[in-house]
Amino acid sequence: MRIDIHTHAFSAHRAAEVIASIVRKSESRCLLTPQGNGTMADLIRQERVAGFDRYAICPIATKPEQFHYMVRYLTALNSGSCGAEAQRCVIPCVSLHPYDELAREHIQVLIGLGAKMVKLHPYFQGVPLDHRRMIRLLRIITEAGLPILCHTGADVSSDGEPMASPLQIINVYRRVPGLRLICAHCASWKHSETLRFLLGRSIYVDLAYQKSTGTEPIVRAFAEQHPQDYVLFGSDWPWCNPAKHAETIASWDISKPRLEAIMGGNAQRLLGLTE
């Protein structure tokens, strides 16, 4: 099973607006070029062409009340109203906000609707990864049994203090027993020290990156040298073409068993997915 653990898609009537806004915010820091129109239909088409069987669409709750959106999203996915291919291939991923006072109850509702993973983004949510509110949420999600995909490293749309640095990652791993945090982008952008602090540890990473950030050598080091069971493929579509990204990774110095683990085996085991 080939799995893309990290993608985004937006409603058809808002996709163009959302993508344009992110491109605008990133212009002074990184050249972002969308590789699709940002809709679920286009994502499904591109993942099919790239040969991926399953893929996680990762929403981000920017305020606590967006829990209700997560319920509607999973309900639509489960009912087949998003389409039969989406129902079959999209991995149910949700998001909760660190200031959601009912997060413990809400995560159980979402698990009941089939949620397999939670996406967090310290920059978009406005809460540092090691803030007490984020630590509380990480504990709640971990105790509920779900893995967490979190944006790590600097963010191309934001300036200011680090919100998800390698040291902050180590801090939360120490403070949250049993945490299964997937560090998106290998915490690589503007954090070259990620190799010193994270490489070789039993910490999950995904291999999504932007060529314009210059982080490919760091991400490649994780792909080739990090503990095999802790590396997952992620494209971050629509910011990267999944087929081209998979081809790039396959061209690196990676053995066939390791590549198979990266391209799906690890994610399948982590998320408890069946064929």
Give the arrangement of secondary structure elements:
Layout: E1 3-7, H1 15-26, H2 40-50, E2 54-57, H3 67-79, H4 84-89, E3 90-91, E4 93-94, H5 103-112, E5 117-120, H6 122-125, H7 132-144, E6 148-151, H8 166-175, E7 181-184, H9 194-197, E8 204-206, H10 216-225, E9 231-232, H11 242-250, H12 256-271
Parallel strand pairs: 1-2, 2-3, 4-5, 5-6, 6-7, 7-8, 8-9
Helix pairs in contact: 2-11, 5-7
Features:
six-stranded parallel sheet; three-stranded parallel sheet; 9 strands; 12 helices; 275 residues
Describe it:
This protein is an alpha/beta fold. The chain has one domain (3-271): TIM Barrel, CATH 3.20.20. It is built from twelve helices and nine strands. The strands form two sheets. It has a six-stranded parallel β-sheet with strand order 4-5-6-7-8-9. A three-stranded parallel β-sheet has the order 1-2-3. The longest helix is centred in the last third of the chain and has 16 residues, at 256-271. It is globular and about 40 Å long.
